[in-house]
Amino acid sequence: MRRISVFGSTGSIGVNTLDLVGRMPAQVVALTGGRNVTLLAEQARRHRAELAVTAHPECYAALRDALSGSGIAVAAGPEALLEAAERPADWVMSAIVGAAGLAPGFRALAQGRTLALANKESLVTAGPLLMAEARRHGATILPVDSEHSAIFQALRGEDMAQVERVIITASGGPFRGWSAERLAHVTAAEAVAHPNWAMGQRISIDSASMFNKALEVIETREFFGVDPARIEVLVHPQSIVHALVGFADGGLMAHLGPADMRHAIGFALHWPDRGHVPVERLDLARLSQLSFEAPDEARFPALRLARAVMAAGGLAGAAFNAAKEIALDHFIAGRIAFPAMAEVVEEVLARPSVAQGFTTAADSLDSVLAMDHLARRQAAEVIASRH
Ligand code: NAD
Ligand code: MG
């Protein structure tokens, strides 16, 4: 029986993962969540997990009480997350949101397992480190982001030397085509309303600002080793084509599928085989039309910033992600406007103390986390100085 752990099981990706895991024979090892202790305990009982971990020590008692008499082990705090990542398992889902997902995923790789990686922040902040750690331990990383799963599938059996370009699509989010004036007044509630995908709050807002696509461009570079000049972004409002790979002979392999993350999760779950996944089957005749347009980098500067981050290299990805996470916190709290998120990130990247770190390689967890902390402090300062 396959042993499976899910980090971030109470989130959008986590819930979809358990939906699929519940349909196959599996021993669930560890499930982890944040403050949603009721859901975490319910998942742990339903899937007969060995261990349930909340990231927050102050939630320990509530989780322990909710699982009393179940025989399921309970733990709390960041150290406990790392210990959970050391429990032997064959397949581990990394679906914590943000840079907080890096260390547990990294620790799981040391066990030489399959890591299904939804946490794109791991690759953005520490791509070279993560890929090297997987190689060192003979572990496999499988992409779970829909675009990256699509690229991975289009590349099966292909020669990377013949790849001319990789195109990832973006829906354009709820504000596609909006003027700069209108964007200045949007609220978090409006930004979270994604037209096609049901996702966690943070990635939904990142989709509206195109920061999600910016992270994904960097993720593409880090995971597939594609030169940044060969990575393109195409706005595709229907979210049916997830990515395309262009080859030396002019052919494009496109991946199409419904906007349901269970496809990409299921692909990673069944890999290297294909298995049945209960997503809606596309009726292309009913869809009738797929459209594409170029992204507007003037109104959505995140993509331009991602290009600068890739050109800078080193710890720039860690700084970019951390500054974005803080700017997003402040937008959600209503303290800065929607377009200010990109302005704050750009200012943080230009700060000398931060930019100095770009020459340092992202080759140790300590250096990545030090840059993460520095960029968070700088972002908070930049935001404070705007008021
Ligand atoms: P979510 O907010 O719905 O869930 C996040 C999970 O992480 C929850 O279980 C939460 O309890 C846990 N968590 C939050 N902060 C934590 C912390 N500091 N320490 C430990 N655990 C913490 O997020 P999501 O939408 O499921 O996204 C998860 C990851 O997958 C993100 O990296 C996101 O970019 C990526 N992703 C999501 C989707 C999607 O459709 N939701 C698609 C592609 C990629
Ligand atoms: Mg995606």
UniProtKB/TrEMBL annotation:
Catalytic activity: 2-C-methyl-D-erythritol 4-phosphate + NADP(+) = 1-deoxy-D-xylulose 5-phosphate + NADPH + H(+)
MF GO annotations: 1-deoxy-D-xylulose-5-phosphate reductoisomerase activity
E.C. number: 1.1.1.267
Source superkingdom: Bacteria
Binding-site residues, Mn(2+): D145, E147, E216
Chain ranges of the DXP reductoisomerase C-terminal domain: 256-377
Keyword Manganese: yes
UniProt keyword annotations, A-Z: Isoprene biosynthesis, Magnesium, Manganese, Metal-binding, NADP, Oxidoreductase
Domain spans labelled 1-deoxy-D-xylulose 5-phosphate reductoisomerase C-terminal: 141-224
Residues involved in NADPH binding: T10, G11, S12, I13, G34, R35, N36, N119, E121, G200
Any Pfam family the entry gives: DXP_reductoisom
Record-listed 1-deoxy-D-xylulose 5-phosphate binding positions: K120, S146, E147, S171, H194, S207, N212, K213, E216
InterPro entries in the record: DXP_reductoisomerase, DXP_reductoisomerase_C, DXP_reductoisomerase_N, DXPR_C, DXPR_C_sf, NAD(P)-bd_dom_sf
Pathway: Isoprenoid biosynthesis; isopentenyl diphosphate biosynthesis via DXP pathway; isopentenyl diphosphate from 1-deoxy-D-xylulose 5-phosphate: step 1/6
Tagged with keyword Magnesium: yes
Domain 1-deoxy-D-xylulose 5-phosphate reductoisomerase N-terminal: 4-127
Cofactor(s) required for function per UniProt: Mg(2+); Mn(2+)
Described function: Catalyzes the NADPH-dependent rearrangement and reduction of 1-deoxy-D-xylulose-5-phosphate (DXP) to 2-C-methyl-D-erythritol 4-phosphate (MEP).
Family: Belongs to the DXR family.
NCBIfam families membership: Dxr
Protein name per Swiss-Prot or TrEMBL: 1-deoxy-D-xylulose 5-phosphate reductoisomerase
Source organism of this protein record: Plastorhodobacter daqingensis
